[in-house]
Amino acid sequence: MPPSRFLPHSALQSLIDVLAASGYAVIAPQAREGRIVYEETFQTAELPWGITLAQAAGNSRTTKGTHKQAFAWANGPQALKPLLFAPREPLWRITRQTDGYAVEAIEPPGRPLAVIGVRACDLAALRIQDRHFLGGPCPDPHYGGRREGMLLVAVNCTHPAATCFCASTGDGPEATADFDIALTELEDGFVIQAGSPEGEEILAALPLQEAQAGKIEAAAAGIRRAAESQTRAIPGQNLRDALMARLDHGRWQEVAERCLACGNCTMVCPTCFCHAETEQPELDGSGSLHSREWDSCFGERHGHIHGKQLRPEISQRYRQWLTHKLASWHDQFGRSGCVGCGRCIAWCPVGIDITEEAAALLK
Ligand code: SF4
Ligand code: SF4
Question: Collapsing DSSP states into helix, strand and coil, what is residue 247?
Fold first, then answer.
């Protein structure tokens, strides 16, 4: 690891300014209507200073705390996913010509993004999404175009939510790879490290101070405490065989009696990548716009294939989600599809908890 330095809170604006001057649109967390969202940011005053985020099963709410930090919370409903894999976007347009059809690819907006506040679980999810969208024989040009220019400023977690369990999946709370810059926030500023030549170049333009040993130790202690304070855990990192042996377990029906099949869990999950493709034909028959949008295995449409509904029951849809995420994902990606961010727990309207369901299924 390159040496750690220190960036006082009062100099954080210089990071935004240097990133903007380097051509990036700077995306950072902001507090909005009780949530933390990622939006374009120009001033450090827009960050969620003094904000605390309480999360529990079926609950997520920001409050004004008594501290003076900007990142003393775990995660909001968004992660990097919507910035790279847009919730809805047009892919191509087909236009009728006198002698046939013309197909025009629609390019995604070209401005590179610098994202401040990326958590370790988000980086783990990004590795999975990169593999899904870019690892095959036909890399996705929309995802790839955005990903290529993206600069990642990670923030190590020192304030996990009650819903977090990244320590048990091995994906957090410390960012250990695949970032350009990493910050660990203390009461008066950040211990800061570069993780790439691009990150080092940005750091070279900042008014950094030498990081005293006490600050480095305080940052490490904050990350250690974050791991130790997590009370939820996924029971074992590879549940493939155990879950596949329980496809007829009574718990699938029990959870289906609570589940609304709303799909919130899949929308907020940073590793879910299912989508639907739709056509919007012009009324005059002159052409058609082809788009894709996020879809969910909890929706009726998703299981409707060749005129047949494959998963008419909610119990089958929940089973599909959990066994893909925690079991068959190992066959696809060599790891679980869960990075322990806890979003599906906090944003499930009826508080269904993936750690509790996995534990109940293993009994
Ligand atoms: S399954 Fe839930 S806890 Fe796991 S990565 Fe997805 S949203 Fe996060
Ligand atoms: S588990 Fe919760 S969030 Fe997911 S579909 Fe069911 S009710 Fe919605």
Answer: coil
* C-alpha span between 142 and 151 (Å, rounded): 17
One domain for residues 25 and 57: yes
Are both 147 and 172 inside the same structural domain?
yes
pTM for the model = 0.95
Question: Does any domain span residue 99?
Answer: yes
**313 pLDDT more than 90:** yes
- Estimate the share of the chain in helix, then strand, then coil, as percent rounded to the nearest 5: 35, 25, 40
Predicted confidence (pLDDT) at residue 264 exceeds the cutoff of 70: yes
Residue 235 belongs to some domain of the structure? no
Report the pLDDT value the prediction gives residue 179, as an integer from 0 to 100: 98
Nearest CA to ligand 2 atom 6: 259
- Tell me the residue range of the domain where 328 lies: 240-362
Atom 4, ligand 2: residue with shortest CA distance: 265
Mean pLDDT of 112-117: 97
pLDDT at 239: 93
Mean pLDDT for the stretch of residues 94-104: 95
Name, in order, each residue with C-beta under 8 angstroms of 334's C-beta and a sequence gap of 6 or more: none
Which atom of ligand 2 is nearest the CA belonging to 348? 3
How close is the Cα of 216 to the center of ligand 2, in Å? 41
Residue closest by Cα to atom 3 of ligand 1: 342
Evaluate whether residue 234 is within a structural domain. Answer: no
> How much distance in Å is there from the Cα of 118 to the middle of ligand 1?
16
Which residue lies with its CA nearest to atom 6 of ligand 1?
A: 269
Q: Pick from 158, 164, 80, 161: which is nearest to 122 by CA?
A: 80
Mean pLDDT of the 199-219 span? 97
Ligand 2 pocket, CB under 6 A: 259-265, 298, 348-350, 352
